[in-house]
Amino acid sequence: MLFFLLLILSAFILIQTAPIEQSESTTIFSTDKLPSNGSSLDYRILPYIGNGHVATVVFSDFIYMNGLYNGENGTSHRARIPSTLNWQFKINPSSSLYTLNVSSGFFIETLENDEIRIERYLLASQEYTELLIAYVVLTRLAPTGRKIVVPVEVNEQMTSIDIDFTVETRNNEHVLLSGKTRQVENSQFQKELLSVFVYYTPLPVEGLELDSEETNRTYLFVTSIDEIKSRAKQSFDYATNERQPHEILLSHVSRWNDIWSNGYVEVTGNDELQKQINSAFYYILSSLPPLSTRSEHKQFYGLSPGSLSRGGLLGEDYGGHSFWDTETWMFPSVLLFYPTLAKEILSYRIALRDSAVDNARLFGYEGWRFPWESARTGVDVTPDCCPEVRLYQMHITGDIAFAARQYIAATGNRDWLLNELGGELIYETARFWGSRAVYNNEKQQYEILTVLPPDEDAQPFKNNSVFTNAVASLSILLADSVSCITNKKTPQSWLDIASTLHFPFDNLTQTHLEYEGFDLKNTTIKQADVVLLGFPIMWSMSDQVRRNDLLVYEPLTRDDGPAMTWSMHSIGFIELGDFDKAEQLFRRSYETYVRPPFNVWTEAKSGVGAVNFITGAGGFLQAILFGYGGIRLKLDQLEFKPRGHLPNQVTKLIFHGLKYQGTTIDLTIDNKVYEIFVRAQNSNDSVPLTYKHGEHHGSLKLNDRLSFSIDSQLIIRRSVPLCP
């Protein structure tokens, strides 16, 4: 399905006269008419191309770069770089086709009339991440003997509301814009304005042409963007002077093929669901650094709910800021297939630790307190409209610690703990909670007061959010669990907090209360909150309490809430064996949030809200992995317990390339059995693994293929614990 594309692409380039056909492939999204909003294109639901360093919505007016923000504190937002890719062909086509190819990571515009076919490929290069490429192929359809000129409408912009640009160079070879942002985000943590350099091929203001005897011609338009001038120039020169145009394209496709071969989910029996899964992974991965690139490594600056392709306008798409969405909703599905990219996500928080220290001190606490909204510097860039979330929504520090917990659970990466400040991240977030909790003599328990839970309708603040207290407790326990490696002893006072935090609970209904004093009958909540205790937190509770939490909080949740809520409810009902309810909620988690024709996610099901909403895509993928896949990643083991009731007429699910402790595992599930296959073991990172299934146990070796009955539990562990 996914991995023949390199050959297909080569054939497609050579056979230029093949007729336009709309593909039914599960990696191809095509339309003959782009979505519109009145008389103009509806950029909100157009797809984007990106590579974790640069990204742009196709045909839009702006390009965005990782870490490039303008605006002070709460006005910080992604700085808008004028697009070099938004020029349009001015012909009257007899046919047109617009295609997003998610397996190869490019967008194609194909136009035809009686004389000529135009194929324009747009891509954000995986080979050199500074590059955005427009690769254009003209193919003659009319007889030779007459020159053909294709007029092009070019609206070249060299100014930006966010960046002071200067045209340093303009010649036949390239244009160079050099610029600096207009405002620092925070003068304490950003001493200078941010630089950006844009090299690009002169735009086709005179149009494109085929000479009278030419049957085809290829044009390559290169844009190279970076904060370092020499790096932008080097990548531009590479693409324009050192490689043939088709080599640039094929190298990019090859690297996307490598991404998919590292990990993907295969569905049998429902092509539409397969397309949903493929596109969800594409949109998340396009905002992350490549698995393999020839560019220098750069600091990654986080995953925003609206992806790297959005965030240039205040009040839209969250300004490109990072929230708890990064670690809670997007991180888990990335971690299981691409642990190196998961580490990049955590590196963002570590890099901005000085701001987290200052943020804790600002409120009179110790350790690292991460901001609710983060951009370039790590100071809180929550807009002034929302002081409550800036002041009280501190569960994000626990969310980040939980992501670190899952990363250690999946990888056992001692080097990250000792040499890449992972141990500091874990210890200092625990220190924050150690300073934040207070003892209640009457209850004889610790409390965390004046916080805003994930349910943002609970304003301005509440006491003892059960979710906040759970992630705080796990944060402290994680620091203790890895102390044998970090040599950072966890104080007994912290451990006392972790073991005796107060969890509001209604004994009559046997239900967790979202916070102290929560009214189970007359309160409306924004989104998943208490149900997150069951998953992803996996807090210990009886099946009955788990069921009660799900049944009580579902009708209390706003109908217009975000998609991720229903993914978590679906996972819970799969756990409990209520498969009809689970499938109903699973469908609810994506069907009304994904917009055709390119499967772009939106935050709201009525209206639009934030677009390219990869938070929702992340929640949806978790329902596939942890719901129908039955996967549970715990600190000391990986568990499989698929229930066998697959969604939407699916007959088989295959998870290709799950990573655990340096071993790569394929998991295949049908309605009766599930099978694991040990595909690979990394000689540098893998550790010996053992498995246990009922009374059976043994070592797990390369090329082992083991089958088990559905609804039975398989446990895989390191043969030697991380901390014996």
UniProtKB/TrEMBL annotation:
<keyword id="KW-0326">Glycosidase</keyword>
<comment type="similarity">
    <text>Belongs to the glycosyl hydrolase 65 family.</text>
</comment>
<feature type="signal peptide">
    <location>
        <begin position="1"/>
        <end position="17"/>
    </location>
</feature>
<dbReference type="InterPro" id="IPR012341">
    <property type="entry name" value="6hp_glycosidase-like_sf"/>
</dbReference>
<protein>
    <recommendedName>
        <fullName>Protein-glucosylgalactosylhydroxylysine glucosidase</fullName>
        <ecNumber>3.2.1.107</ecNumber>
    </recommendedName>
</protein>
<dbReference type="InterPro" id="IPR005195">
    <property type="entry name" value="Glyco_hydro_65_M"/>
</dbReference>
<dbReference type="InterPro" id="IPR008928">
    <property type="entry name" value="6-hairpin_glycosidase_sf"/>
</dbReference>
<dbReference type="GO" id="GO:0005975">
    <property type="term" value="P:carbohydrate metabolic process"/>
</dbReference>
<dbReference type="Pfam" id="PF03632">
    <property type="entry name" value="Glyco_hydro_65m"/>
</dbReference>
<comment type="function">
    <text>Catalyzes the hydrolysis of glucose from the disaccharide unit linked to hydroxylysine residues of collagen and collagen-like proteins.</text>
</comment>
<feature type="domain" description="Glycoside hydrolase family 65 central catalytic">
    <location>
        <begin position="311"/>
        <end position="520"/>
    </location>
</feature>
<keyword id="KW-0732">Signal</keyword>
<dbReference type="GO" id="GO:0047402">
    <property type="term" value="F:protein-glucosylgalactosylhydroxylysine glucosidase activity"/>
</dbReference>
<keyword id="KW-0378">Hydrolase</keyword>
